[in-house]
Amino acid sequence: MPKGQKILFLGVYGMEVVECGGALAKNILNGGESYASIMLCRETSQPQVKSAAETLGVKVSFLNFEYGTVDLSKESKVKLIKRIREIRPDIIITQDPEHSFHDLDPDRRPAMTLLLESIALASRDYALDETPGLAPHPIPTIYYMTPHHPNTVIDISQVWEKKEKAMDMLESQMEFSGKHFDEMLDLKTVEMLYPGFSKLDSYQEKGRAMHKVLDKAVHVYHGLATHGHFALAEAYRREGNFHLQELIK
Hints:
There is one protein chain. The radius of gyration is 19 Å and the shape is globular. By secondary structure, the protein is an alpha/beta fold. Strands 3-2-1-4-5-7-6 form a seven-stranded mixed β-sheet, sandwiched between helices. Helix content is 43%, strand content 16%. It contains ten helices and seven strands. The protein has two domains: 6-153, Rossmann fold (3-Layer(aba) Sandwich); 169-228, no CATH class. The two termini are 14 Å apart. It comes from Cytobacillus oceanisediminis. This is GlcNAc-PI de-N-acetylase.
């Protein structure tokens, strides 16, 4: 990753800042700046997401959209456009369009259209009165996180422990996940994945235990397991072609 990049992550939900936290933390390690703006994050969860972002070195803000009401209104677009013009990023990371349509989390589908429209409009002479002092910003390079069909992987071995520590901060999410896994998986299966799962005292502990299993599995899969060069890797899909002066290895 080139040094000194300015990356803006535009997320729908709070945990996503940790899911792509390896790339964000690696950018900081290389002398860059990493920012995150989250559309939907409950007020009670915001301190946890902020702590996770701080662990990664990411500067986070919350756009305070309401669940079930994400739309393509001018007001919604301006919230995102203002942030893009304030940060003026070289790279934007956001959710994968294909993934967003298959995922049945609420608001993902309208959020995807809103995000892409806002990125496009931020580069035009749109809503200049609503963003005084902020000039249009050319469309940056876009990477989609956790894509179904990645074309890019980032070595995050160097920041793996930092990413795991950031995930520890998301107590509400871990509790939600713990209850989900406890109800979905039978005892024999879950003990295969995480021996001792049934003896854990709380849903929060159970959620964290299963996320540790899942996190390592996903990152090893995109790294070493698929004849990769890295032990642990985050997967992305770059929008458009790579433009190179010459072929690189």
